[in-house]
Amino acid sequence: MAIEFKKQSYAGHFPEIWRGEAKILPGGFSPKKEIQPGTVLRRAVPLCVDFDELSAAICKTVKVLAGGTTTKPRIPKGHYFSVGDSVTKHGDYSKLVVITGIDKSNTEYDTLTLQSAYTGLAENDVLVEGASNGEGEKATIAPAYEPNMIIGAEKNWDGKGLLTIDAAYDAVVLIPSLEDTPMLPEWLNGVCLKNNPNILYIKQ
């Protein structure tokens, strides 16, 4: 009698922090921008913490997938972009385009709707939440935030109560966990976070 082996899959993801160890700042930080209910705040996501405001902004990036267009790019699930965010392309920073819609109906990817076409946008490009600095001809475009901490504890935001973010100031982050939402090279100094050398990034 033949024996049939059945495969079974289990949900999970690559661990974000080596050995799960991270040192958390006391208290929690209010999100700088609204976070939609249903969002899972994953560990090791880069944060810009403002101690004066006791706030934390997620430093949003995402890698573009194949199959979309310059007005409707496809991106992986698990990103942190929202309608109303402005995006620019890493390595370009020549324009800002507002996200006017996000289609989450596909089980494999989400589709952004951009207010206007981002000419030249292609697979594997990295979109970054951007902001304009200065006025007129002197205006420049850059990432909206630069990280100095990371999310230290996973949280599934259900929209109930008051959301606070646990920020970690010391951890070893495993780079494979950041493939879909990559760190920008300018945010790093060698293997460390530029604005916080207690956070290291390694491949394991």
Helix-strand blueprint:
Blueprint: E1 17-24, E2 30-31, E3 40-41, E4 46-50, E5 55-58, E6 61-63, E7 74-75, E8 86-89, E9 97-103, E10 110-114, E11 126-133, E12 140-143, E13 149-151, E14 155-156, E15 167-174, E16 188-189, E17 192-193, E18 196-202
Parallel strand pairs: 2-5, 15-18
Antiparallel strand pairs: 1-15, 3-14, 4-5, 4-13, 6-11, 7-10, 8-9, 8-11, 9-10, 11-12, 13-15, 16-17, 17-18
Give your account of this protein's structure.
This protein has 204 residues and is an all-beta fold. It is 0% helix and 38% strand. The chain is built from no helices and 18 strands. It has strands at residues 17-24, 30-31, 40-41, 46-50, 55-58, 61-63, 74-75, 86-89, 97-103, 110-114, 126-133, 140-143, 149-151, 155-156, 167-174, 188-189, 192-193, 196-202. The strands form three sheets. Strands 1, 2, 4, 5, 13, 15, 16, 17 and 18 form a nine-stranded mixed β-sheet that branches. Strands 6, 7, 8, 9, 10, 11 and 12 form a seven-stranded antiparallel β-sheet that branches.
